[in-house]
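R.M. (postdoc): so does anyone remember the format we settled on? I'll just put the structure tokens first.
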């Protein structure tokens, strides 16, 4: 059910984006189309970054307060400590 909802809202976003580009062209010409497209691109990039950040920094169960909160951060901390020695 969740994938159907995601597909539906994804379709709605695509249609709205296309309508925004057409409206930009009708109202202001090519410069408005570029502006609308750039705004849409920034919004998509922000959305993807937020989703990635939420998934990348999930705290593993059983780790103490001083431990790295994810595998990537733990490895990075180990590399930094090895260089400091």
């Amino acid at each position: 059910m969740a994938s159907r909802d995601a597909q539906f809202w994804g379709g709605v976003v695509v249609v709205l984006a296309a309508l925004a580009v057409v409206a930009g062209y009708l109202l202001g010409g090519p410069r408005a189309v570029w502006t609308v497209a750039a705004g849409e691109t920034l919004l998509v990039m922000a959305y993807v970054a937020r989703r990635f950040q939420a998934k990348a920094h999930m705290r593993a169960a059983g780790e103490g307060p001083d431990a790295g909160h994810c595998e990537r951060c733990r490895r990075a901390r180990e590399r930094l400590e090895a260089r400091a020695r």
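R.M.: ...and that's the designed sequence above, right after the tokens. Also worth knowing: The chain has a mean pLDDT of 78. The chain is about 80% helix and 0% strand.
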